[in-house]
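Lecture notes, unit on protein representations.

Consider one protein chain, 195 amino acids long.
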Amino acid sequence: MRKLAILAVAAALPLTAGAAPENYTVDPYHTFVNFAVDHLGMSTLYGRFNKTAGKMTFDAAAKTGSLEITVETASADTGDGDKGGRPRSRDDHLRQADFFNSAEFPRMTYKSSAVKFSGDNPTELEGQATLLGVTKPVTLKVERWKCGANPMSKKAMCGGNASGTIKRTDFGMKFGVPVLGDEVKLTVEFEAYKD
């Protein structure tokens, strides 16, 4: 019996050692980059970007992974898209040169370069954010993480939430500071299906 157990363990070792990172494609219907910023010192303004794409890799055995998210800046949505009697809505203004300048910079990206783990789960993403043509380091804390089969489609997937902060002036977005907050809290909710 002991020899059989040793043979079973030995046979399994090459499979474990040879495990490779698994690739995932971000689900654009369940992945959003949300933002929150101080507004006039009175309240916090919340918004999100409605169009995202991306890729993810994950290898729990090797404790490695990566996340790349591309965001369409023109998809910024704060719930104020109807200008009414005003010259422009807030969402229109966000797309203009004062903020995201979507005509010149239609996309912003986040690419992780290192992932920290606690046990089998990622806890922190270190990476680079590119906004308005400027690239800066940004760390995101992983607040929720789970892998498994989608209960409806049965497809293998992983998902979670990650958050961090940036200063928009670091990327050259200076309009309205300090009346409109410089520090922006980012929360990324993401789901991705195994390729």
